[in-house]
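ok posting inputs for the pyridoxal-5'-phosphate job
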Amino acid sequence: MPDPAADIGAATATAYRSALEVIAASEPDVADAIVGELASQRRQLKLIASENYASPAVLLAMGNWLSDKYAEGTPGHRMYAGCEMVDQIETLAAGHAVALFGADHAYVQPHSGIDANLVAYWAILANRIESPALAEVGAKHVNDLEPAVWERLRHDLHDQRMMGMSLDAGGHLTHGFRPNISGKLFSQASYGVNPESGLLDYDAIAEQARQFRPLLLVAGYSAYPRNPNFARLAEIAADVGATFMVDMSHFAGLVAGKVLTGDLNPVPHAGVVTSTTHKSLRGPRGGLVLCTQEYAPYVDRGCPMVLGGPLPNVMAAKAVALAEARQESFAGYAARIVENARALAGGLLSRGVRLVTGGTDNHLVLMDVGASFGLTGRQAEQALLDSGVVTNRNSVPLDPNGAWYTSGVRLGTPALTTLGFGPAELDEVADVIVAALRATKPAAATAKAKYELDPGTAEACRSRCADLLARHRLYPEIEL
Ligand SMILES: Cc1ncc(COP(=O)(O)O)c(C=O)c1O
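and the output
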């Protein structure tokens, strides 16, 4: 009997061997680095909550001549001729996104999560501020406005308020913080979490919104280990006349896999939902925007409003990833991500580690390494890397070490779950993490970056990581 999986595995191995041969003929150093990256990813236990391993089908869909095509515009309305195949691909990807998430409309051109948020902000400003201003003077287009009217509109576009989750509570830089364009564009107020529980306090957010009167309320996080109640947040936004937007970059895979439903699914509750496609959703690096019909015409103007020409090869990879996420097996994957995160949290708690909010309900766990091990996030992140575990440091609420050194380390299970790790193995991972951090101390009392890690423990941890990874080889079909 022919085995289709074995055939695809053999074809994948051949595809990569051939591709590397072709690349090496032009620039062998790049081919070497690609091979080196696979070796490095196979050596490390990946617990970075925002990373994953895309399927070979997703990866291969990006490496071809679709990349050569300019396609500014939307399907059927392009500024360039010859876009029939790009139209087909973009329509397919958007159709998959609409069906998967139950949205009215999807826009799959954003090149990243930051870009998706920028598209969303401008769509909201265009709908809420620009359109009424045009209607007031009976103009169809900004080019038709008198200079004085245009100057007033420009001022009004830059004079709006938004509320977003504070950075140390787990929010994201693109939700109105000064180093990002969103913080320069909007006057922002941050909502935090209850300092005791680490949880969102909806009554406090409602009160703050009543005082601040934002045009836009943004929810979504990159380091909050619980599931926000989007129905409640939508009510808060509606009460003050704000547009409700959710950035689901981190947990889109849990929405796609129907782990987050009802009040925990942002799509039925928000006017605009943005996402990356490469985190728990397991697609190519990129972004997308979902929205109601009301926002669709504005979202579709993302390019050339704030985006450069679309990347047709990446939209093709998004279509493949979204098709994969529509398969029944993806729901099982999403459920296992959460099961594994619970096992990891349980393993750390039982070994005495303090976790922000005391555990997790989603794909991520936030360790307070200051309280648990007397380390900064920076020291812990490096000591873990030396021990074979790749993570990233992160602030904890009211972090005494600031946003650079931090007191936290964020862990996530999407990538290890893709490899096939189960709860018992996540408990073992917790044991490795605790062993490594117990064997680490600051190099001096005031040191925030330098540390000392017992070399024997580091060696033992690396060997345990290698054993775990040998059970679940990354891209097992690929032998180079
Ligand atoms: C919540 C959230 N939004 C947006 C982004 C930005 O995504 P990208 O790096 O693709 O621009 C991230 C990535 O870290 C994120 O966590």
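notes: The longest helix spans residues 113-136. DSSP finds 20 helices and 16 strands in the chain.
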